[in-house]
Amino acid sequence: MNKKYIVANWKMNPTSAEEARSLAQEIQRVARAEIILCPPFPFLHLVRDAAPGVSLGAQDCFWEQEGAYTGEVSPAQLKSMGCSYVLLGHSERRIHLGETREMVNKKVQAALGAGLIPIVLIGEEDRSQTGKGLADSMERVLAGVSKEDRARLFLVYEPVWAISTSEGGEPARPEEAKEAIGRMREAACGARILYGGSVDASNAASFLRDGEADGVAVGSASLRAQEFLQLVKQAEEV
Ligand code: 13P
């Protein structure tokens, strides 16, 4: 059976170090390397210490390893903090901060250069366009990345309309995810492909089984410890 990866994207949550520590401690109860916790930067250190059995990921990085870039965090710094992964290209960064695919491409290359595994998120904004434009987005964010490096990457099919905090956000149907993931596999050179968007304990298994995803990226449900533990259990049974 292939490993199934579960990425917990905490986004800009929780608000205190105490809450972050206790959430990480709860998750440590099912600790496995296939669980990738991505807390906000200020909590990376304490999550690493509270949940040593899971993998650590950041939610972004800059495209240079060091220098005069006030406020930015480099891939080399994340690596030295114990991160193995970094999320790149999340739609919320494009929507709120104007991040472009060209910026994401530079970040992917820098992350690979520092020995991090990029988890690159791609997905259309509008449900009527489901699956369209994915190959083009992939080519732009992965331009210049070798076949060998592409095979190490994680890609997430995460349609914007399916994110729980988007207006009217509801999960894709597993067959929609399957079709989009199939299109992405053609150009992915062996990268693992995950699904993200309103994943919870009730539907995670269907994306892994019927959607043929190699894992799931979880936002809101990853902040509810009991539900997240349940989700991990469901994924294990697929
Ligand atoms: P939700 O699981 O809250 O829909 O968030 C998905 C997401 O953005 C993960 O990257």
CATH architecture: Alpha-Beta Barrel
CATH superfamily: Aldolase class I
How much helix, percentage-wise, in residues?
25-40%
Helix/sheet category: alpha/beta
CATH fold descriptor: TIM Barrel
Keywords:
TIM Barrel; 8-stranded parallel barrel
What does this structure look like?
By secondary structure, this protein is an alpha/beta fold. The protein has one domain: TIM Barrel, CATH 3.20.20.70. The protein is built from ten helices and eight strands. Helix 9 (204-209) links the parallel strand 7 and strand 8 (215-218). 1,3-dihydroxyacetonephosphate (13P) is lined by residues 9, 90, 158, 163-165, 196-199, 217-221. 1,3-dihydroxyacetonephosphate binds next to strand 8.
Topology diagram in text:
Layout: E1 5-9, H1 17-28, E2 35-38, H2 44-50, E3 55-58, H3 75-80, E4 85-88, H4 91-97, H5 101-113, E5 117-122, H6 134-141, H7 147-152, E6 154-157, H8 174-188, E7 192-196, H9 204-209, E8 215-218, H10 225-236
Parallel strand pairs: 1-2, 1-8, 2-3, 3-4, 4-5, 5-6, 6-7, 7-8
The protein binds 1,3-dihydroxyacetonephosphate.
1,3-dihydroxyacetonephosphate binds at residues 9, 90, 158, 163-165, 196-199, 217-221.
